[in-house]
Amino acid sequence: MSLLMLYLVMLKATLTTFNGPSSLPVLRHELVVKRAILTDRQLNAAVTAAQGSPGPMGIYAVSVGFFIAGVPGAVVGWLAVISPALLVIPILRYIGRRVETPRARGALEAVVLAGSALVIGSAVPLARDVVTGPFPAFLAVTSGALLIATRIDTLWLIAGAGMLSLAAALL
């Protein structure tokens, strides 16, 4: 895959989503399922690296680009992540107060709900690659329940799951 095509695929994913992980279904479909140039394991590693790093979750696209094309791919991933932000500034200036109308607010809420459904839909194939036994399943269910029921920061969940996994490996 050429760097230009990689940029366009990643740009498509970032332009059609409103937060970092909601681009997962698009990238997974394009790069894992359709083109087979990335594996679910690599996609999981990219997401894990982004979650363990400071900054926005969407930065996982940089790791995806790196897995596909090395450092030039990482640069392409970074450009695809920042391009929408650079495009939205003039658009928001043009739209201005029109976003405050109930119709516009309702449309934005519908897009966010649809994006959430896409994230959940892409989580299942990624989980199949990682949840390989009862202990990983326990960690996944417990983490999901804690995220839904509490306001715990994901950093604490990642740290706790890591410590539990280390303890289980040592026993």
Termini gap: 45 Å
Task: Determine the fraction of residues in helical runs and give it as a percent range.
Answer: over 70%
Name the structural class. Answer: mainly alpha
- The average pLDDT value, as a whole number, equals 85
- Report the strand count: 0
What would you say about this model in short?
Helices cover 78% and strands 0% of the residues.
Report what the structure shows.
It is built from 7 helices and no strands. The chain has 171 residues and is mostly helical. It has helices spanning 3-15, 24-34, 40-51, 60-95, 102-130, 134-149, 154-170. It is globular. It is 78% helix and 0% strand. It starts with a helix and ends with a helix. It folds into 2 domains: 3-128, no CATH class; 131-171. The mean pLDDT is 85.
Which terms would index this structure?
mainly alpha, globular, 171 residues, 2 domains, single chain
How would the blueprint of this fold be written?
Layout: H1 3-15, H2 24-34, H3 40-51, H4 60-95, H5 102-130, H6 134-149, H7 154-170
Helix pairs in contact: 1-2, 1-4, 3-4, 3-5, 6-7
